[in-house]
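Example 3.2
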Amino acid sequence: MASLVTLPEIPFLSEAPKMDVSVVTRLRTMSTFKLILFNNSKVFLMLTLGILTCGILSVMSSFLMGGVVGLIVKIALGHGGTVPLVLAALIPHGVFELTAFMSIAAIGIYFPLRVYGHIEGRPIDWMKEAKTYSLFGLGAYVVIFFAALIETFVTPTIAAHFIPGLT
């Protein structure tokens, strides 16, 4: 389905950017880390708020994330990127990042189901539920933090090995 979508021509992407080692060095900074962590925190919060929308926001955000990743891959491959380069740019941090995001999205869907079960008469220890969800959320956010570190300081170095003529 995604291959049926045609992308508009974007003038600043009409030719591949000139790459050298300084690109990798410029990416590995604390300001890049802060930007990535801030953006990931916004997504994390949106997925967490899925609890308040009976999981709808969690599901929509999950599909949106998949679409954005797919679009970026399509653009990268369409502008001369190779499959190994795209995988090297996504996998090192993406495994952790997506696992944490999908875990929080799952809670956004699971919690409303628990509430519905309570409405039907199933007993729920709300303090235990709150503690479990809080610990789970904290753990997932710690994973997001480490994923941002990997995305900033490890992923560019790995991806650079797959850019012809860069290393």
